[in-house]
Specification:
Layout lengths: L5 H11 L2 H8 L6 H11 L1 E3 L14 E3 L2 E3 L3 E3 L12 H12 L3 E3 L7 H9 L7 E5 L5 H14 L4 E4 L9 H6 L35 H10 L4 E4 L4 H9 L4 E4 L13 H12 L5 E4 L5 H9 L4 E4 L1 H32 L13 E3 L5
Parallel strand pairs: 4-11, 5-6, 6-7, 7-8, 8-9, 9-10, 10-11
Antiparallel strand pairs: 1-12, 2-3
Helix pairs in contact: 1-12, 4-5, 4-12, 5-6, 9-10, 11-12
């Protein structure tokens, strides 16, 4: 099968992945209600195009926190790329650089951040990479890994704040999958104390994480801080007041607290609270170019995709990731054209309305 859309890439990836590893990537918390809602919520939104606007062919480029991207589609941070393909994050970094978009490298990557940025640098002279962080109780390690990200050339810090505890993944429990297999390690964790070096079991998700940790990060690094996981409008407002540079509206792909609302449903509430003071990004359920444009209409500056990148990687390594990105790019451009828009900045709220039932 030659995939022509993201869902067909997932079908091909499922054929090629170890079933246990497919379940790890595809699964989510408990009954996976939020996982399904993230996608189905987009189907409840209809696009209402404008006509006869004489718009030029759409230019998709955006600038986010000083980083230029050729389209409003970023790579969301996802762990353990080596489970999908031997080239792991090296392949995804090259594909992101080739597409001239932003890769958010995961703290739990199976390639060290220095090697990820070096690989992207083989393709682009000035690649745009951001680094995703789980703040650890060991603030010495946390600061050390932030320094590594800075030195490697990462341009922003994406702090995941929706994980005071690990979500309960029943698929993983059934498969007894709780750590990487022999020969694979989270290469950014080798200096973290406790457990076998590089084991995901070293990571501590603590309910004690608070706004003081965000204040502390603001003090120790000049990097822009993107807060990932703020869904409540009051939290979004607090984040802006405390100097956060951008928000990534995310429910962790449904992998943490089940029955959270779909991110696209929550986006307008967050946008209203933020009032345009910082850029808003969105991840969760984006599978089509129409989804991208709906998110732009509801207040996002760009979207980020996670699982689709993994499906492309599993299907065909770097080439598969490139095809996923280019498929979403082409669909987004086509949707913008049909809506009478010459680019992301021309998308307005009136282009979207809610319909009574899903298609």
């Amino acid at each position: 099968m030659d995939p022509v859309n993201v869902r067909e890439f997932e079908a091909l990836a499922r054929e090629r992945l170890d079933p246990v590893h497919y379940d790890y990537f595809a699964g989510a918390a408990q009954d996976e209600v939020t996982l399904r809602a993230n996608e189905s919520a987009f189907a409840r939104l209809a696009l209402v195009p404008r006509i006869l606007r004489g718009a030029a062919a759409p230019a998709l480029d955006v600038t986010l926190l000083g980083a230029d991207a050729s389209m409003p589609i970023l790579m969301s941070p996802t762990a353990f790329h080596r489970l999908a393909h031997p080239d792991a994050e090296r392949a995804t970094a090259r594909a992101a650089a080739e597409a001239r978009t932003i890769m958010i490298a995961a703290m739990l990557s199976t390639v060290a951040i220095e090697d990820i940025t070096a690989e992207a640098g083989k393709v682009a002279a000035d690649p745009a990479l951001w680094f995703q962080l789980y703040v650890q109780p060991d603030l010495g390690f946390t600061e050390a890994i932030v320094r590594r990200a800075e030195a490697a050339g990462c341009r922003a810090l994406v702090v995941t704040v929706d994980s005071p505890a690990l979500g309960r993944h029943e698929r993983n429990d059934r498969n007894a999958f709780h750590d990487l297999p022999d020969g694979m390690r989270c290469e950014n964790l080798r200096e973290l104390r406790g457990g076998e070096p590089g084991s995901v079991r070293q990571v501590v998700l603590s309910p004690e994480i608070s706004w003081r940790h965000i204040d502390w990060l603001r003090e120790i690094t000049p990097l822009p801080i993107v807060l990932k996981g703020a869904l409540h409008p009051l939290d979004a407002r607090l984040a802006v007041e405390r100097g956060v540079d951008a928000l990534l509206v995310s429910n962790h792909g449904g992998r943490q607290l089940d029955t959270m609302p779909a991110t696209i449903d929550q986006l307008p509430l967050v946008a209203e609270a933020v009032e345009g003071r910082v850029p808003l990004l969105l991840d969760g359920g984006v599978r089509r170019g129409t989804d991208v444009v709906k998110a732009l209409a509801l207040g996002a500056s760009a979207v980020a995709v996670g699982r689709p990148i993994l499906w492309g990687l599993a299907a065909d390594g770097e080439a598969g990731v490139t095809r996923v990105l280019e498929t979403l790019r082409a669909e987004t451009a086509h949707t913008l054209t049909l809506c009478g828009c010459d680019g992301p900045r021309a998308v307005t709220r009136d282009l979207v309305r809610e319909v009574r039932c899903c298609h």
